[in-house]
Amino acid sequence: MCADANTGAEITAVFGTVVRDRCDALLLGSRPFFTTRRLQLAQLAAFHRIPAIYPVKPYSEVGGLVTYGASVTVPLLKINPADA
Fold it and tell me: How is the chain split into domains, by residue range?
């Protein structure tokens, strides 16, 4: 199943479908809108007991189960052009 949402109400509706269809887990894509709704997403997943994997750490900071992705806090290596 693949679903998208653009409002808080649509997120709630998608979770209703996920529960009804007895999905085993949720893999959340990386969208700025989802990040702004991370608390709602983490709470709904926990309430419905749906294991969820989120794209960045802020989701786990509000109760999300697992995050998997690149760290946005680790600075990039600075390469001196003279050393190349």
Answer: 8-83
